[in-house]
């Protein structure tokens, strides 16, 4: 039944479903149909469940709308109102077209996410096959830990970057001659958007005049004809709707000048043309805007420069977005309009302060802030002289022994004559060689082959899968401890049965298989140990539970 | 296999343990293998190394309990030592002169060393760490002399037992050798030495405890004569499993899991709230006390 709080977006009467007359309701989250006269809905589908909608072709007598669900079943609605059937159907279709995409994304997103993860990571895929497909654990448990991690990443990527505005967008319009004395301007929606973003005054005019007074085409024709668009804005006819825009631009430019420069240390003078001397190079006199004796040419030059600056400032402002507003306000607050207080440090713009600070200070020359340290106080430093070496039984030699040994050696060496032809006998040498040959006394350790050479690679692969799957199960098991909530109690019991099942279904056959292949190495000993430890822990916990209950 | 280039210098430093107390006792234990025999074997090894290539260099250090002494090369800066004559006595058997000179020098030096041995009761351990340090200095010296990179290795022939007090110096030497890519090989005559096992493992050398002392020369030539490049092509005794377990500072027992003080890095087998070496107090959060659950009183009927 329809919840009272549901918002009904569209109601269409005289809609037949399964040869029954009724009314179709489109709500915020679902579409529903109820038969005539009855209060309840017989058909109700969430938008999330609908895969797509289909309409009957235009020529047909029956005007129908079909909804196909994800599950494959479909529902047909026949619009039977003689006069308005087509319009009703189209209205319903348009509304559905708007609503379905919103819900579609949400439903599929999770599935898509899961599929993507499984495809990207073959280890995960194998784990999924081993555990969920063979029903050792349920799919929800499997995805429980993994999905939450990835949702965070995705939301970050949804923030789209804003597209900036090209500064040359007006120049790019590039009028083409029409053949006979006319000009064609090609306007795309991108250019229109740029114009609106850069010059909000124009946007305002557009909103005021179109579509009441002018059509779009006329508006843009007037725009291009007006001197607002052209370079020289000297003579502006009063008829021009864009004369106001020009006045607004002047105001904007003046306010920008008043706001001041954020970083006064930017050296603009370095960009000036360097002249050899007065009279050789450029005109060193800067035009003053307030002079009334300006020639026409100077006026137009200053107008162009003004317009150029204004245009650039507007482009930058439009591209910066909302963030630019807050610091702008701050800057205008700190730089007071009073000329005197501008000089005081307190009111300097922050960027300038930082730059000056950087220029006059060197970090290395600051006073050392000695951190407070604690001295190492070793009481038994002789422990380090022998280090972590075990105490070995020392052989005790009496002083008499020492004296005897030294005398003996001194005597021997005093008469030492190297006799290099009789260093050893041949039998000794050959026995030594025998000991060093493969299979000899000293070579025993080397004859053991590395285990990975003895075990075939498919057995190794299977062992790896077993380890991954067992690791996953054991992780679920051990994460249940300490058991605080009834949910964890159930889970730990379930996990224990899962572990047993895994051991039965996967581990035992593997062990039998390798035994049959006469591999004497104990490959699964460690796995068995891990399982046994888990069982021990479970039994300990169970007995403690029972003791607590009694 | 990397072929040694024509002018690549290979330096072998042999450190022989000549602890007189051990060797004196050995003379009683096994008369057929005494220090003289050992020195003969070392000479054979040294000669063989010199003969392998013209560019091979040799140094031999005797590690005594009172000092470490260079048996070879002869200390050139010692002037007027009574060996000023330029014609050393040749053995007359037509031997390559370099070898006969070397052997004579070695014999002389060991006699000198032993003759000035003084009997002291408190110095009975071989100064092995010091000898290794001298060997490293010698290698560095030769490197500076030749001015080029040389391949060098140290062969330690060890007789007496380890001295635990030299542990720190030993480890420093090992790490210094590892940094300089100097191999440390060890040929142990009597009992296994944990320190040398570590040294060989860390620097990439070979460790061998020989079953028959009298066949020492054969073992030396078979196992330790080839240099590191050639060893990869030969079937040699496999590396020994090294026990890297540390011993706790309190009982000197080997432990696998222990407690380490974060201030002075001393290792203990049991937790104690105060480290006995540096007297730092530690707090470990105790497990939270479980409050006794109040039993629900049954309603009295």
Compose a concise summary of this entry.
The complex is a heterodimer of chains A (550) and B (301). Chain A is α+β, with helices and mostly antiparallel strands. Chain A has helices spanning 85-120, 122-133, 139-158, 189-198, 200-209, 216-225, 243-259, 296-320, 325-334, 350-360, 383-386, 399-414, 426-436, 444-447, 451-454, 457-479, 486-516, 525-549; strands spanning 8-17, 20-27, 30-35, 43-46, 50-55, 64-69, 74-79, 176-177, 183-184.
Can you describe this structure?
The complex is a heterodimer of chains A (550) and B (301). Chain A is built from 18 helices and nine strands. In chain A, strands 4-3-2-1-7-6-5 form a seven-stranded antiparallel β-sheet, covered by helices on one side. Chain A has a two-stranded antiparallel sheet with strand order 8-9. Chain A has helices at residues 85-120, 122-133, 139-158, 189-198, 200-209, 216-225, 243-259, 296-320, 325-334, 350-360, 383-386, 399-414, 426-436, 444-447, 451-454, 457-479, 486-516, 525-549; strands spanning 8-17, 20-27, 30-35, 43-46, 50-55, 64-69, 74-79, 176-177, 183-184. Chain A has 550 residues and is of the alpha+beta class. In chain A, helix 16 (457-479) packs parallel to helix 18 (525-549) and helix 17 (486-516) runs antiparallel to helix 18 (525-549). Chain B has 301 residues and is of the alpha/beta class. Chain B has helices spanning 20-29, 35-52, 97-115, 128-146, 167-179, 194-203, 216-224, 228-231, and strands spanning 10-17, 56-63, 68-72, 151-158, 183-188, 207-209, 246-247, 254-255, 259-260, 267-268. Chain B is built from eight helices and ten strands. Chain B starts with 9 loop residues before the first strand and ends in a 33-residue tail after the last strand. In chain B, strand 4 (151-158), helix 5 (167-179) and strand 5 (183-188) form a beta-alpha-beta unit. In chain B, the strands form three sheets. In chain B, strands 3-2-1-4-5-6 form a six-stranded mixed β-sheet, sandwiched between helices. A two-stranded antiparallel ribbon of chain B has the order 7-8. The longest helix of chain B has 19 residues, at 97-115. Chains A and B meet through helix 11, helix 12 and helix 13 of A and helix 1, helix 2, helix 3, helix 5 and helix 7 of B. Chain A: It is found in: Nucleus.
């Amino acid at each position: 039944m329809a919840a009272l709080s549901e918002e009904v977006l569209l109601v269409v009467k005289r809609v037949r479903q399964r040869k029954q007359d009724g009314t179709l309701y489109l709500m915020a989250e679902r579409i529903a149909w109820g038969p005539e006269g009855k209060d309840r809905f017989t058909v109700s589908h969430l938008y999330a469940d609908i895969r797509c909608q289909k309409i009957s072709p235009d020529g047909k007598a029956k005007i129908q709308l079909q909804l196909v669900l994800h599950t494959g079943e479909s529902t047909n609605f026949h619009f039977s109102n003689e006069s308005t059937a087509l319009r009703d159907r189209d209205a319903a279709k348009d509304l559905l077209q708007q609503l379905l995409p919103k819900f579609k994304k949400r439903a599929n997103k999770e599935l898509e996410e899961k599929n993507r993860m499984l495809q990207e990571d073959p280890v995960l895929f194998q784990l999924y096959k081993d555990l969920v497909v063979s029903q050792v654990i349920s799919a929800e448990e499997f995805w429980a830990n993994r999905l939450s991690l990835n949702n965070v990443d995705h939301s970050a990527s949804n923030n789209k970057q804003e597209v900036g505005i090209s500064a040359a967008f007006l120049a790019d319009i590039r009028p083409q001659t029409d053949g006979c004395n006319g000009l064609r301007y090609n306007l795309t929606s991108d250019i229109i958007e740029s114009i609106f973003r850069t010059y909000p005054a124009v946007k305002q005019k557009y909103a005021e005049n179109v579509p009441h007074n002018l059509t779009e085409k006329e508006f843009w024709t007037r725009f291009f004809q007006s001197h607002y668009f052209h370079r020289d804005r000297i003579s502006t006819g009063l008829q021009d709707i864009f004369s106001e825009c020009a006045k607004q631009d002047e105001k904007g430019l003046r306010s920008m000048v008043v706001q001041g420069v954020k970083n006064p240390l930017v050296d603009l003078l370095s960009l000036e043309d360097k002249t050899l001397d007065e009279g050789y190079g450029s005109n060193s006199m800067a035009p003053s805007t307030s002079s009334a004796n300006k020639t026409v040419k100077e006026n137009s030059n200053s107008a162009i420069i003004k317009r150029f600056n204004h245009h650039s400032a507007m482009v930058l402002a439009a591209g910066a977005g909302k963030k630019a507003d807050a610091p702008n306000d701050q800057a205008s607050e700190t730089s007071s309009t009073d000329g005197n207080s501008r000089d005081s440090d307190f009111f300097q713009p922050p960027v300038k302060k930082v730059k000056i600070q950087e220029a006059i200070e060197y970090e290395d020359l600051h006073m050392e802030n000695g951190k407070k340290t604690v001295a190492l106080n070793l009481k038994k430093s002789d422990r380090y002289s022998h280090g972590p070496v075990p105490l070995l039984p020392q052989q005790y030699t009496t002083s008499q022994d020492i004296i005897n040994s030294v005398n003996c050696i001194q005597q021997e060496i005093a008469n030492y004559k190297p006799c290099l032809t009789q260093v050893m006998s041949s039998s000794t040498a050959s026995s030594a060689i025998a000991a060093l040959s493969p299979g000899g006394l000293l070579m025993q350790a080397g004859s053991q082959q590395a285990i990975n050479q003895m075990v075939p690679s498919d057995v190794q692969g299977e062992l790896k899968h077993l380890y991954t799957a067992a690791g996953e199960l054991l992780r679920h098991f051990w994460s249940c401890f300490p058991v605080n909530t009834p949910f964890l109690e159930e889970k730990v019991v379930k996990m224990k049965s899962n572990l047993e099942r895994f051991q039965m279904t996967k581990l035992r056959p593997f062990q039998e298989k390798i035994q049959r292949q006469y591999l004497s190495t104990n490959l699964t000993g460690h796995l068995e140990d891990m399982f046994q430890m888990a069982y021990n822990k479970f039994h300990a916990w169970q007995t403690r539970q029972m003791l607590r209950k009694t | 296999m990397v072929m040694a280039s024509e002018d690549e210098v290979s330096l072998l430093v042999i450190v022989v343990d000549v602890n007189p107390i051990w060797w004196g006792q050995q003379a009683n234990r096994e008369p057929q293998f005494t220090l003289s025999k050992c020195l003969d074997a070392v000479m054979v090894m040294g000669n063989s190394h010199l003969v392998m290539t013209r560019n091979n260099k040799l140094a031999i250090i005797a590690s005594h309990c009172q000092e470490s002494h260079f048996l070879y090369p002869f200390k050139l800066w010692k002037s007027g030592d009574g060996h000023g004559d330029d014609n050393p006595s040749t053995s007359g058997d037509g031997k390559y002169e370099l070898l006969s000179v070397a052997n004579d020098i070695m014999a002389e030096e060991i006699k000198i060393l032993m003759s000035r041995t003084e009997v002291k009761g408190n110095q009975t351990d071989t100064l092995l760490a010091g000898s290794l340090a001298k060997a490293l200095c010698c290698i560095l010296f030769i490197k500076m002399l030749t001015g080029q990179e040389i391949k060098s290795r140290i062969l330690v022939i060890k007789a007496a037992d380890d001295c635990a007090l030299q542990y720190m110096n030993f480890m420093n030497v090992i790490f210094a050798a590892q940094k300089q890519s100097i191999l440390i090989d060890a040929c142990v005559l009597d009992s296994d030495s944990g320190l040398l096992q570590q040294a060989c493992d860390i620097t990439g050398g070979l460790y061998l405890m020989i079953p028959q002392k009298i066949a020492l020369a054969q073992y030396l030539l078979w196992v330790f004569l080839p240099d590191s490049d050639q060893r990869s092509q030969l079937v040699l005794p496999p590396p020994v499993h090294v026990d890297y377990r540390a011993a706790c500072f309190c009982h000197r027992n080997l432990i696998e899991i222990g407690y380490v003080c974060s201030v002075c890095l001393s290792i203990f087998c049991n937790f104690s709230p105060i480290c006995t070496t540096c007297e730092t107090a530690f707090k470990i959060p105790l497990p939270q006390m479980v409050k006794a659950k109040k039993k629900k009183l049954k309603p009295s009927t």
